[in-house]
Amino acid sequence: MDSTMKAVVKSRPEFGAELQEVPVPDPAPGQVLVKIQQTSICGSDYHIYKWNKWAENNVEIPQIMGHEMAGEVVALGCGVSSVSAGDFVSAETHIPCGHCYQCKTGLQHICVNMKILGVHTDGVFADYAVIEEVDVWKNDPAIPAKFASIQEPLGNAIDTIRAGEVAAKNILITGAGPAGLLSIPVAKAFGAANIIVSEPNDYRRELAEEVGADFVVNPLEDDLEAIVEEVTDGTGVDFVAEMSGVEAAINQGLRQITPGGTIALLGVPDDPVRLNLTDDLIFKGINMIGVTGREMFQTWYIARRLLKEKKIDIAPIITHEFPLEDFAKGMELMQSGNCGKIVLNP
Questions:
Q1: Over the stretch 31-59, which tens digit does the pLDDT of each residue have?
Q2: Domain boundaries, the chain
Q3: The domain at 159-290 falls in which architecture?
Q4: Which residues have a Cβ under 8 Å from the Cβ of 266 and sit 6 or more positions away?
Q5: Considering the entire predicted model, what is its pTM?
Q6: Does 4-150+314-345 carry CATH code 3.40.50.10440?
Q7: Hey, which residues does 198 pair with through a beta bridge?
């Protein structure tokens, strides 16, 4: 095995990152070493790249970036028994402590001592990466590596849509970034009646139509309320999947929900958000659900079945592939918004 590898390293508290040659890590007890086959860029990776407030508060530099991946196990740390060398795997990115109240009561994904792969630990934008055994997910060999590499964000979409119990319901998705785009085929697979997508970016609105949205709206130019009223016969949508983290989108979404409906929030705002709780939430009896990552590991089983049985087609959502060395091109596309999911190949 090589003694060194290339890796994308966040080395300075400023915009950007560097491709560096670094030592191949050794797996500690309870860890596995994975040779990365494909990895993909998440919005949080871009936050670290541009070094926003959230990154400043969570990332200790220098650190290898990235957390979405598919690869092959090549070495085992002491005590590892659930996987073997040669296994084709991906990684859950929540690293739970295993002993807090949440972990002990089936809520590992919201562990109070949570660490996140590629945020609080070295990540996977590299030739090799160390993964905790608890987070290793064995992939079905029938799933292509590029699809396997985006199961983690696919899980975000799955859990957000699951929160709405969307079968035969009219739904609104606010934000058609990668997670919002992934939520469209998921909602279709789960039986949603009408899927309305609100997205200001032209490129992503076109993608939303391509992957199956029934109605696509530019919230900066179109009358979203009038469109929702027409589609739902004046009732309002039953469910909103808020994927943008934008204050205006959150408030627009709340106003479109029928009384007694549900909103699930996955998008993460950069700043505190102002809401009209009295009129848009309390008096309407709205259910508001926060979604963080994926349930461990129910969501992963759902993702595997959807992909293996070809119940969803996520190929159009992977719009760009680059060698790892060209990671900056991917970050530029993330900044512009003119992309879906971006895959990097070490």
A1: 999 999 999 999 999 999 999 988 999 99
A2: 4-150+314-345, 159-290
A3: 3-Layer(aba) Sandwich (3.40)
A4: 156, 157, 159, 160, 179, 241, 242, 243, 291
A5: 0.95
A6: no
A7: 174, 217
